[in-house]
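dude i think i finally got it to work??
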Amino acid sequence: MGDKRQPKSGGKGGGKGSDKEKAKARAKAGAKPGKKDEADRTIGKSEYYERLAPLELELNDLARWLQHTGRRLAVVVEGRDTAGKGGVISAIVDTLNPRQCHVVALPKPSDREKSEWYFQRYVGHLPAAGEITLFDRSWYNRAGVERVMNFCTETETASFLKQAPTFEKMLVDDGILLFKYWLTVDQAQQEERFAERLADPLKRWKLSPIDVQARQKYAEYGQARDVMLKATHTRHAPWTLVDFNDQRRGRLTLIRHLLDHIPDRKVPEAKIEFPPLAHAPLVEEFRGPLEPIKSM
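look at this
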């Protein structure tokens, strides 16, 4: 599940090294890359935006379908630190109506919230008719960071793992479309991204003291994840794992999966009449005490 070391190249095992050698040999021979070679290739920025553009149109179709039908969509995005949760959520919401599409990224609970039923603080953020809610981390904090970093007891974790499938069954039975994604990333990639956050003043806010401590617990996070998946991967609310070692490819893969699993989302787009003005366009005039500040 991403925690095991890659096999060494050579021999009959045919590890990563041998795959690269085969790809190079095919390239020299003029052969087109196979599916595995394509999946291993890093996507450049221009190609990423070119492939993202049609997905954005489909996401807007989805948003119109939700408004038309009154359906509700909740998407849980979980994964290790630096996996790319915020990036894929930004890619989804970028062209959508912010009044319809909401992002939930809750801070640590207050003392009052700590005394509540664990799921209570999330219930108020669930989508209403026609809305999309994306959870940048979610109630699964309890099975991940809270458990690994000893912010909760084993009894509290066990209670959560028992209650989560029932809680989610209630959401699905009430008509919410619930999708749960876990973003995977190898530790070498994670370390590169941590270093990038440390070096970049515009990204440094993403690096917390907890993140620095968590670097030493990569294996423990993997073990906690596996226990969580075993307990909460259900028929009514299954998990989907997405490889985010290449974040651009991961975003495209996740969005494509989401769209493919919500069928019949095309509805007629309302036509808007846009007649010409009855006069020449006017220019802003300011007759009061204020005027725009000087442009840069």
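Confidence is low (pLDDT under 50) at residues 1-18, 22-32.
im so relieved honestly
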